[in-house]
Amino acid sequence: MDSLGEWILTLAGAIGFNQDLLARYGMRFLSGLGVTLQIVAYSMVIGALIAFPTALARLSSNKILRGVAFGYVYFFRGTPLLAQLFLVYAGLGTMLASHRAFFDDIGIWWILREGFYYVIVAFALNTGAYQAEILRGGIQAVPRGQTEAGEALGLNPSQIFRKIVLPQALIVGLRPLGNELILMIKASAVASIVTVFDVMGVTRLVFSRSYDFQVYLWAAIIYLVLVEGIRRLWDSMEWRMTRHLRPATG
């Protein structure tokens, strides 16, 4: 075992962890951490792609667009993520399974049978609703005078939105977006319910084989370290992106 692995085992022993258990399943936990990071990253990115048109639809003067967007946001913010996951996994999964022969013929059934992809769909729809409201709030927080200043400069509405309104809206929404990312990391634990071996999925597997309750402590520590790392990274990014808004010190 390399020096890093030996150091981890030594530290685990000093803390009181079961070194044999860690040596046997440590790599599985690292693999589960990788799956968790993939779930969160894919979900946040796809959710952002959903959020942008949804936020614009929420602000639209078209009643149909506004109503559809409101219904989507209302449903996914008002129901538990676990229920949404089961709706996608059991509902959509059952519907697609009834046409398995067709998907086998076109060679994509190997994707549709994996719980991982249903988790991405459910999580993306969920975070897309929250991100849409964050973006909508950011856009509405930009003072009307900013738009009027753009008009005075002869900019068209598209240019005003892209160059004036959107950048300021994103800065306003930076902190709540970071909170949403942290919430998604913690909520990703429910993916284990549909046989996805993320951190919690690996924890459940290891516990079923070892009956050693300390594996749940390992999972808690992994989530805690991950959340704290993201929090510090987000604080640093926010400080850099908003330093021009702070008063100069002389």
Question: Could you describe the 3D structure shown?
Answer:
The chain has 250 residues and is mainly alpha-helical. It has one domain (14-241): MetI-like (MetI-like fold). The protein is built from 12 helices and no strands. The protein has helices at 3-15, 19-58, 63-78, 81-97, 100-105, 109-112, 115-141, 144-152, 157-172, 174-187, 199-210, 214-241. The mean pLDDT is 84.
Q: How much helical structure, as a percent, in the residues?
A: over 70%
> How much strand content do the residues show?
under 5%
SSE arrangement, N to C: HHHHHHHHHHHH
Number of helices: 12
Shape: flat
Largest sheet: none
Low-confidence stretches: none
- Which assembly state applies to the chains in this document? single chain
Q: Compute the average pLDDT.
A: 84
The CATH topology: MetI-like fold
CATH superfamily: MetI-like
Number of domains: 1
- The second-level CATH architecture is Orthogonal Bundle
Alpha-carbon distance between the two ends = 54 Å
Give a short summary of the structure.
By secondary structure, the protein is an all-alpha fold.
Keywords:
12 helices, mainly alpha, MetI-like fold
Protein topology:
Elements: H1 3-15, H2 19-58, H3 63-78, H4 81-97, H5 100-105, H6 109-112, H7 115-141, H8 144-152, H9 157-172, H10 174-187, H11 199-210, H12 214-241
